Amino acid sequence: MSVSTLRVTLNDGNTMPLFGLGTWLCKKEELKTAVRTALDCGYRLIDTAYNYLNEEAIGEVLEECFKAGKVTREELFISTKLAFIYNRPSDVAFSMSESLKKLNLPCVDLYLVHGPMAYKKPDDPDDVFPIKDGRLDLEDGIDIEGVWREMEKLVDEGKTKSIGVSNFNVAHMERIRKIARIMPVTNQVECHAYRSQTKLEEYLHKFNIPITAFAPIGSPDRGASKMFVVEADTPVLLNDPVIAELVTTYNKTPAQVFDFQLSPEDMAVIAALDKGLDLFTIKS
């Protein structure tokens, strides 16, 4: 079965591809090549964010592909995220409008609250991780409920088809669930063999909210970002002896996830790798 046909039905009735291209840390020309290649290979979900500072480049590639007839807008699922510097009720609509302008689209398929924290608004709108006195310039708190109500308005206005969250724990999810008119359709979180998110998944399953995994193979290049702590002794998932053994058994590379199936026994072996290890610890 082609990767382009595998989809999941969300709790609002919309469907989302099971596999997508994450675009964090991509340089402009490399990103444009990656998006073109992904679309040629059958990917139909492109995930970006205001914080990635690459929405404009993605918009250029999408326009190019639409004009060339390689893909239609209706075939694609475009996901982007609310900026941390605009993570307050009064700024949600503005952040959305800026993303749509850069992507050159009238609406997106999914708009996510990127995280349960807000940074103070800098003078430069591209300063998405503002630093003050050597630390991230965080707001004292965030009005999660107010932000979510503004997210719901974006659906009403046709700016996005679905809304969700990212990097939210159970407590954050409960705050939204108690006031939501439109439920989040997904929670995009770090999820891989070292961080299986079992308890969070069990909670979300009760409300038909699937996890979307970022860093599913452990994000070996995350150290390229200055925002995250990378300890020298942090294990590399793709180099794990268990993965190496399975590579030999299935004659695949560590990162390959298509065109083969793992046995239940081997799935259990991978599940046992869970260390509760957060690879993305923000410097503060």
UniProtKB/TrEMBL annotation:
Binding residues annotated for substrate, in chain numbering: H114
List of catalytic residues: Y52 (proton donor)
Database matches in PROSITE patterns: ALDOKETO_REDUCTASE_1 (PS00798), ALDOKETO_REDUCTASE_2 (PS00062)
Residue intervals of the NADP-dependent oxidoreductase domain: 20-219
GO molecular function per UniProt: oxidoreductase activity
SUPFAM superfamilies: NAD(P)-linked oxidoreductase (SSF51430)
Site (Lowers pKa of active site Tyr): K81
InterPro entries: AKR (IPR020471), Aldo/ket_reductase_CS (IPR018170), NAD(P)_OxRdtase_dom_sf (IPR036812), NADP_OxRdtase_dom (IPR023210)
Pfam family of the protein (one): Aldo_ket_red
Name of the protein in question: Alcohol dehydrogenase [NADP(+)] A
Organism field: Mizuhopecten yessoensis (Japanese scallop)
Lineage, uppermost ranks: Eukaryota, Metazoa, Spiralia, Lophotrochozoa, Mollusca
